Amino acid sequence: MGKKSFLRGAAVLGIAGLLTQVLGAVFRIPLGNIIGTDGMAYYQTAYPVYIFLLVFSTNGAPAAISKMTSERIALGRYAEAHKVFKLSFVFMSIFGLICFATLFFGAEAIVNAMGNAEAYYSVVAIAPALLLVPIMSVFRGYFQGMQQMEPTAVSQITEQSIRVFAGLSLAVILMPMGIEFAAAGASFGGSIGPIFGVAAIIIIYLLRKKKIVANIESDKSTGIESAGSILKTLAIIAIPITIGVSIQPIMNLGDAIFVMNRLQDAAGFGYEGAKNLYGALTGFAAPVINIPMALALSMALSLVPAIASAKSGGDTEALKTNVNLGLRTSMIIGVPCSFGLMIIAEPIMLLLFPLQTDGAVTSSSCLFYLAAGTIFLCIAQTMAGILQGLDKLSAAVWGIVAGFVVKCVLTYFLTGIPGLNVKGAAIATSAGYLTIAMINFLAVKQYTGIKFNFNLSVVKPIACGIAMSVIVLAVYKPVAIIAGNSLAVLISVAIGACVYGICLIKIKAITSSEIKTLPKGEKLLGLLKKVKLV
């Protein structure tokens, strides 16, 4: 899987991830305006626990299945690759049932331990999704292993679209019963969406089954690996990948464990005050970071089979190219997201939550500190994907363990300071991302011996980000005076994005040949040539 395949795969998953996060924002933003920080505190108590139970299904299992499938297909062992798929289906179905039972029957104990007992209905409502998402993950991993990213994209967008529609509809319908029931309705949307996501990817599988069967029948290899050996390998690969790729969900779990209790016990806030602050951090500020996170995660998932294929095939040049490209792409994604969110944090929150201005202002400082760590999150996620592709899974595990320890220790102490309160948790999150990024980067450098082009991968994107920031500030302030905050944010962000893209092209931080490998890249390149940008 060379540069073209990696870039195309990353772009397909990246676009799907971006659309999914946009849909998520379409969900979270009106939901926040409807149920406020109180309701988001209920919803965000349920969601991190749900995501933590799902990290194996949504990240570890698909990446492991993808890796195992791609390695076997590279050797022409199609029958063995399909056996991986079938065994994974059975295993993940059982795993989903266990996760469902844990969350559904343990809901009361979980919310009491987190200091937010009124979130009980939200936790129960999201539990059924745990039965379906693991099944969907098996299909996604199998298709990704065949370097077919479109089925994953279609199922993601289908699932999220239904989730948004169902969740918002139920929140509005149940609002008269109370905020806790409205939040539970929003959570239940997350259980309805996977039904349609599973249906979509099964239909795609059936449409492509003829080709899959033909490949299996053409397989002349002998000595298919045993079921026990395949499942053992799946677990050995997937468990560390789960930890390594699921950086943000694990960090969010740290907030769920400590923030509410520390705000009440140490910072001097009552239950209502703590609930409002927790909702501002996790329900208003944190979701904004999901867009760059989704792009970085999509790139990391594309890197796993790309690096594994290059390593198993002994293609040193492809390995070097993909590793360098991974770092550069993470910087190209992370820099504008980080710089942009930091310089106009409050205007962005006021734009997104016009009906909850107090919550928007409170959450803007949290967004500032979270945005500071976005670059490190992108690097950490990308380097984890490279380590997994290299079979250096323990290094990715140690990185996330160290980062989580830093996150938890700093959250415990900083959140207990009244003047910092939830801002301390945001600072701790960024410090955790920085820790993981440093450890993962040094591990990749040690295991590959590759020399990185820091001028191309780091200096040039940062220079473009600084130029973008200056333009955004220069545009925002006068436009805000004339046209108001909302229009000023939209115009300054649009102009800033254009400036950033132009700068990248002009200083050759991204080349014409790389643009050409993207989906519709030739058309995009032709357009850029017409306006004399390349």
How would you characterize the overall build of this protein?
The chain has 534 residues and is mainly alpha-helical. It folds into 2 domains: 450 residues, no CATH class; 82 residues, no CATH class. The protein is built from 21 helices and no strands. Helix 9 runs antiparallel to helix 10, helix 9 packs antiparallel against helix 17 and helix 18 runs antiparallel to helix 19. The mean pLDDT is 84.
Q: How widely separated are the two ends?
A: 27 Å
Largest sheet: none
* Helical amount: over 70%
Number of domains: 2
Order of helices and strands: HHHHHHHHHHHHHHHHHHHHH
Rg, Å, rounded: 23 Å
Report the structural category. mainly alpha
**Beta-strand content estimate:** under 5%
Q: What is the number of beta strands?
A: 0
What is the mean pLDDT? Answer: 84
Global morphology: globular
Q: What is the number of helices?
A: 21
Low-confidence stretches: none
Secondary structure layout:
Blueprint: H1 3-74, H2 78-105, H3 107-113, H4 120-126, H5 129-145, H6 150-174, H7 179-217, H8 227-245, H9 247-265, H10 271-285, H11 290-312, H12 316-343, H13 345-352, H14 357-372, H15 374-389, H16 393-415, H17 422-448, H18 454-483, H19 485-506, H20 512-517, H21 521-530
Helix pairs in contact: 1-2, 1-4, 1-5, 1-6, 1-7, 1-8, 1-9, 1-10, 1-11, 2-5, 2-8, 3-4, 4-7, 5-6, 5-7, 6-7, 8-15, 8-16, 9-10, 9-16, 9-17, 10-14, 11-12, 11-15, 12-14, 12-15, 12-18, 13-14, 14-17, 15-17, 16-17, 18-19
